[in-house]
Amino acid sequence: MKIYFPQWQGSGTGTRIEPGAKTILEYLGEIDFTQVPLSSIEAGPQGKQRFHINNYDAITEQLERLKKTIEQGNPDTIQLIGGDCGLEIVPVSYLNKKYPNLGVIWFDAHADINRPCDSASCNFHGMPLRTLLGEGEKAMDTLLSSKIDASQIHYVGLRDIDDAEQQRITKDAIYAPNDLNVRDLANILTKKGIKKLYLHFDFDCLEPSDYDKTYYQIPDGLKIKEVESCIETLKAEFDIVGSSVLESIALQQSHLQPITKIIKLLMS
Q1: 88 near 125, Cβ under 8 Å?
Q2: Does the reported pTM lie above 0.85?
Q3: Cα separation, 68 vs 62, whole angstroms
Q4: Which of 20, 135, 159, 241 has the fewest other C-beta atoms within 10 Å?
Q5: Handedness of CA 257, 258, 259, 264 (dihedral sign)
Q6: Positive or negative CA dihedral for 36, 41, 44, 48?
C-alpha cells in the first residue's frame, strides 16, 4: 500500500514539510498513492498544547484517520510519503503486529525517543519511538496496533541527541553507532532473528553539503552514496515490508536530483 500523508503538525510550526512531501509525490506520480487528509483543527502558532504535546488534537485526529485507512486496506507492505516523523507510530505499530520482531531502521539525525515531559520543544516528531515503546503519552496508545521492544530499534546517522534520549538509549543499549557499518548492522539483525524491516528515512540523516533541503540541517551526516549502498544491502538481505521518506522541504522537483535514487529505493 502506498500512502501520501504530509503531516506537519508534529513539527510544531514546520509548514514547509507539507509542500516538501507534495514535491516528492509529484515526482513519483500521484496515481498509486492513497492520500490521507490532514486535520482541519487549528495548529501551528495558534495550535493548542495538551499532555506536553503541541497541536495534540490535530495530530491525534489525523493519525486516527491514517490508522483506519491502513486497517481497512490491510496491506502486507507500506510505502509512505510524509510528513514529519511523528506519523510513524501508526505504520510501524501496524506492521509490527503483522510481523512480530520487526526490525526498525531509523535513518535520522535525531533520536526521536523523548517522552513528552522531557521534550524541550514539545513537538511530537521528537517522540514517536518512545510512544512505540509504550512509554509516551498513554492517551495516544489507542493509535498503536502493537508496541515494540527497544531491541528492535537500530539508528543510522544519529548525531543530535537530547540528554534524556541518551539515557533511554543507554538503558537498553539500543543500537546507535557513531559511524555507519552496514555489515555490522546486517550481522546484528541476523543474530536477533530479524528478517523483516521497516526503513524510516528522515532526510536530515544526510550530510547537508550533499543534500540541504531538509527541515533540520545537522553537520557531519551520512553521504548520499553510503546511504544508497546501505539501503541496497538491506533490501538484498532482508524483507523490507515498510519504508518512508520524511521531512524533505524541497519545493521543486529539480531540488530532488541528488536524492532521486534514495527515493526510488525506498518507494519501490
Answers
A1: no
A2: yes
A3: 10
A4: 135
A5: positive
A6: negative
CATH code: domain 2-266 is: 3.40.800.10
With 0-12 CB in 10 A as exposed, 13-18 as middle and 19+ as buried, what is 116? buried
* SS3 state of residue 114: coil
> Cell 501551528 belongs to which residue?
44
- Domains of the chain, by residue range, sit at 2-266
Concatenate the DSSP letters of all residues of 121-183 into one string: S--GGG-HHHHHTT-S-GGGGGG-S----GGGEEEES--B--HHHHHHHHHTT-B--SS--HH
d(CA 154, CA 104) in angstroms, rounded, equals 6
Q: Which residues does 60 contact at the CB level (< 8 Å), separation at least 6?
A: 139, 140, 143
Query: What's the rounded Cα separation, in Å, for the pair 63 and 118?
Result: 22
Grid coordinates of 191 = 543474530
CB 170 within 8 A of CB 212: no
DSSP 21-44: HHHHHHHH-STTPEEPPPP-S--G
Q: Residue 125: which of 69, 61, 82, 68 has the closest Cα?
A: 82
**Residue whose grid cell is 543474530:** 191
